[in-house]
Amino acid sequence: xxxxxxxxxxxxxxxxxxxxxxxxxxxxxxxxxxxxxxxxxxxxxxxxxxxxxxxxxxxxxxxxxxxxxxxxxxxxxxxxxxxxxxxxxxxxxxxxxxxxxxxxxxxxxxxxxxxxxxxxxxxxxxxxxxxxxxxxxxxxxxxxxxxxxxxxxxxxxxxxxxxxxxxxxxxxxxxxxxxxxxxxxxxxxxxxxxxxxxxxxxxxxxxxxxxxxxxxxxxxxxxxxxxxxxxxxxxxxxxxxxxxxxxxxxxxxxxxxxxxxxxxxxxxxxxxxxxxxxxxxxxxxxxxxxxxxxxxxxxxxxxxxxxxxxxxxxxxxxxxxxxxxxxxxxxxxxxxxxxxxxxxxxxxxxxxxxxxxxxxxxxxxxxxxxxxxxxxxxxxxxxxxxxxxxxxxxxxxxxxxxxxxxxxxxxxxxxxxxxxxxxxxxxxxxxxxxxxxxxxxxxxxxxxxxxxxxxxxxxxxxxxxxxxxxxxxxxxxxxxxxxxxxxxxxxxxxxxxxxxxxxxxxxxxxxxxxx
Length: 515
Known about the structure:
This protein is of the alpha/beta class. It contains 13 helices and 19 strands. The chain folds into four domains: 2-106, Response regulator (Rossmann fold, 3-Layer(aba) Sandwich); 154-218, Orthogonal Bundle (Helix Hairpins), CATH 1.10.287; 230-379, Heat Shock Protein 90 (2-Layer Sandwich), CATH 3.30.565.10; 396-514, Reverse transcriptase/Diguanylate cyclase domain (Alpha-Beta Plaits, 2-Layer Sandwich).
C-alpha cells in the first residue's frame, strides 16, 4: 500500500511512520510538508491513499480537503488533526474525505483499518459515480427515445384518425346507395341484383367495422376510450343489434338463432360497448361457420352474480394450442375459411378489452371440426357486487391508480327525472374509463374516482369546468347547481373493505335507479 503523508510537523510525521511500520500490511510512505508539494508531485498517481494534516503552512482547515479533492477526484483522503471536533469531522467527510483521525489517538490498528476502509470506500464511491453517470446517460437516451416514440405514436394516431375519416365517408355513401338500389327506389331490381347489392352492403359493412376497430385500438392505446356504465337490460341491447346481424346472416346464408330470456336481471355495463362485443362475436361466427352456417346467440344467469352471454358456431374449431393466441392483437388463424375473410386480426382483442372495461371476463371453448363457443360475463346491477368487480379489475388494469376516491354529488333542490338523466350524461363526460358512477333514487350520485387524494382537486377543477361549459352552451339552459363532497381516498389493495363499506352504507339502504 503506497501512502502520501502531507504533514509539516516532523514529530507527527514520525508518529504516523511508526504506526505504519507496526501494521501487519506492508506500506510504502512518502512524506511532504506542504500542500503545494503534494499537488505538484508528478508521482502522485502512484499512491493509493493520502494522509493530510489540516494545519499546513500553505493551507489550513477544510480548504486543504477541497483543494486536494478538486485536483484528485478519485484519491482516498484521510484527514489528520490535533483536535477532536465532530463538526469539523462531519464537514470534512462532506467535502470528500473518507475518514477523520485525531493524531494522539492514532495507533497501528486504527491507522491500518482507516487506510483499508478509506481505499474501499473510495473505490465504492468511484463505482457509484460511474454507475450514476451511466444511469444518467441511459436516462437521457431513454428520454430521447421516449420523445421520439411519443412523436411516432402521435403521428400514428393522427394517421389512423385521418384514414378512418377518409374511409368512413365513401363507405357511408357506398352503403347508402346500395341500400337505395336494393330497395328499388331508383328502379326495379330482380332477385339476383338484390342479392349482389346485399353483398356489396355486407362487404362495405365489414370494412366499416375494420375502421371502427382501428379507431378503438387507437383510443385504447391512448386511454381515450370512455365508458358509460349503467343499469341495462341485456334483451334491449340484443334487440338493438339483432336486425343488422340478421341481415349479415342472410347474406352469408347462415341460420342465426337467439335465446335471450326476457326475465334476466339487469346488468351493469356500457350498452354500446357490449353491443359491439356481441356484434363482433356473432359476425366472426357467421364468417367462419361451415355451410350451411349455424350460429346461436344465447344468455343465462350464472351462479356468480353475473349473466353469461355466449355465441356458438359450427365452424372448423380452433386448435387447443391456439386458444389463447387468438385474443392477441393482429393474430389470425390460417384456415380455409380465413382466406375469404380478410381482416386486421383486431376484433377478438378489442372484444376482450371491452369486456374487461365492463368488468367481465371472456372465454372460449372449441372442438375441431365441431365448432366454437365464445362466452363473456357481465355483473348484475348491484352496487357492492359491481364495486367488488371494479376493484378486482383495477388491480390488473394497466395505468390504473392504486387509490380510489369517493365523491358524493347532489342537488340542492328537487328536480325532474329528465334533469336527473341530464346530470347522468354530464357525469359520464366528467368521469374516465376507470371511474364508476351510481345514482340513488333521491337524485344523489356516488362517484368512485380512480385517483389519489392529492390529485382530487384536479378532478374537481375538471368537474367545475365541464359544468360551466355545458351550462353555457346547452340550448335547454344551464345545469342545476351541484354539490361536491369528497368523503375520502383509500388504497385499492389494503383498504378494499373500507371502499365496499362506504358504497354499502350510502347505496344499499337506498333504491339505486342508475348504476
